[in-house]
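Structure ticket #2291
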Amino acid sequence: MYYIDMHCDTITRLLKDADQGKSSSLRKNDLHIDLNRMKQANYLLQNFAVFTPLGHVDDPMEFALRAIDKYYEEIDGNKDIIRPVYCYDDIEKNRKDGFMNAMLTLEEGAVVHNDLRILRDFYRLGVRMITLTWNYENGIAFPNFTPGKDEDRGDMLRHINETDGLTPFGREYVKECNRLGIIVDVSHLGDKGFWDVIALSTKPIVASHSNARSVCGVARNMSDEMILALHKNGGVMGMNYCEDFVSDDSNGSVMNIVKHINHIRDLGCIDNIGLGSDFDGISTRKEMEECSKMYLLCDALEKEGYTEEEIEKICYRNVLRVYEAVLK
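Resolution: structure written out below.
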């Protein structure tokens, strides 16, 4: 079985380690993801997000560029097992040649400083997917919740922003992503922003690391109406292993992840389910604790009665379909 994971924050973690003088590498580390364990698990492709914590860095663009340099330093240093992806054909070529694939993505679209010329430069640097917002409003759109005090976290996670959508610049941003061949990612985006993107995008979109709100009622997850709209769009959503987004009692067990998959399947959307672990951006203690444990999800799906074809769709084929449709 192959696996495609649409979202992890490993590169930002490695950059933080480097800034603190710690010796840590993508090939082998004590994080959720490293290349040795990815190879053991038979990963086909890992999206490596440059997570830029807006509000916590002085210059978001400078931070993102440093992280991209770290990404290429690690990928170039491990060419014997992984190669970068710039177009869909690269994925197939790398697979035939026996290499895993790496895709560069951004988590925080504001790193372009409200300038489409800079967006085009990030494309030239290899960025092929962008999460429009993180947890703060930016010049593009508004998130579903903004982090508050620790004691308010539960309430904030359930605050659904149905009023604030894409800005005028955000609309141009989405159009330019479509033109360039950058996959638009609506995870973290407020509900109104999601509907704006769905109405505007001419290409399939993704929610790279979002679950089903009917199963776990937090704002970061997607309502049934949103999932059905994603189905109509031809997009895909990646199951997030974050315990807060998996179950209302913060139990991130494999079977609780399967509950989300079951619900989405029952909506008639088996073709719109993928994986988006959020590894190295979350705390996870239940079974799916790092990337070599992916087989546990396949085993659980098989016990639930899913066919081999359905499991392949969830693990990689649905995401591949979207990548083929968007990546030039």
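Closing remark: The beta strands are 3-5, 43-51, 82-84, 100-107, 127-131, 183-185, 206-207, 236-239, 273-275.
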